[in-house]
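Model it.
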Amino acid sequence: MEASVLFISLISAIAAFVAGYALRIYGAQRKAEAILNEAKLQASERLLKLRDEFETSTANQRQEFLQLEKRLNQREERLDEKLKALDDKEQALEKKSLLIQTHEQELQEKKAELAELIESEKQQLRTVANMDVQQAKDLLLARIETECRSESGMIIKRVEDETKQQADVLSRKILLNSMQRYAADYTIEATACPVSLPSEEMKGRIIGREGRNIRAFENATGCDLIVDDSPDTVTLSCFDMVRREIARQSLEQLMSDGRIHPARIEEVVNQKTREFDQHLIKVGQEVVDEFHLEGIHTELVRLMGRLRYRSSYGQNVLSHLKETGYLCGMVAAELGLNVKMAQRCGLLHDIGKAVSHEVEGPHAIIGAELARKYGESEEVVHAIEAHHEDVPPKSAMAVLTIVGDAISGSRPGARGDTLENYIKRLKTLEGLCDQFQGVDKAYAIQAGREVRVIVEPDTVTDLEAISLAREIKRKVEHSLEYPGQIKITVVRETRSVEYAR
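Modeled.
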């Protein structure tokens, strides 16, 4: 029994020892695993740290390599630029060398000329040595006179150039101021005009039974009377504005009187025709009074009123006369000339158009003869006959009249022309100039009154440019239809271009 207890105790002790030993072994294993894991973690961290350090070092080295490469490229570019600069300098040196050689040659030539001059002077000195005092004085004075004439010629040319430049600027300023001060409205006269009726039933009375009234009216006036669906309106159509105005006044008189039949129509038309001369005088006198002019003959006043019913290129001639008179007066005031005389010349310059369809010859010459016949001064007569340069202008008033007439006729909107026809005419003018050999570009300016032709300087010489202008002038005169005149300007210029680097 004691042995059994002893054995059991021994077994228990052994079991306890084995259990304790197993526990120690397990703890050691756990500790070893912890140490191993910690070692792995430290190794991993160390590996990451080493990797980061390696990548940082590699990136820095790469950046250094890129910078080195960039510096090398910059050095290469600078070397290329220096090589190019050296090439340019070499070429410049070659040019300078050629220039120096040319200068040396010129210097040798000048030395030869100088030697000849010295020899000539020596010869002259020998001649002078044999002269008396008076002869030497005459020779010296002749030489001084030659030098003074040369210098005075240069001074005169410079003064003329400066005067021309100042005169050009001043004339442009005067013309621009005058054009800005006078801005007139233009109405293109049509071949038809409407007449208002007091009521719609008046159309029936105008037509008459079986159209007898309208036929009688058209026969008496020479105008077409158009009765259409327009409310309270009929239309008078006639190319002759005088006949159309007489017809308008007659129709208004018939409507106000109320009696419309063939006999009355003929009576009223005859009455208005007789009264129309007084109407023309009244219209002309209103214009004369507007300008405060005196001493103009009644016949000239009547002809002026007649121009109220005439147009030129769609521009009313009387309106054109008024504007020309105002423009001439403004320019004369700027130049300090006689304003009233300038207005008189401008107002009468186209008076010949009132009878130009009845008398053969240019309207400027016809107008001058009329003005001379009815007591105008020779200054006014000359301005009228010279305003289209049928006679060369010889006075300031004649030139002023030419300028005023040109400004009035060339103002945008002054003369009737559709935009399409206007553009077509300018394109045709430019295309005609482009056809000539050596022409680079051609531009129509000033509403088609001038064309500037730019030629190639390598193809066309100065003398050929003069000949080209004449050829273009002949071509334009034979190929185009245009009002007034067209100025052809051929421009030839040579440009030398260099670049400083």
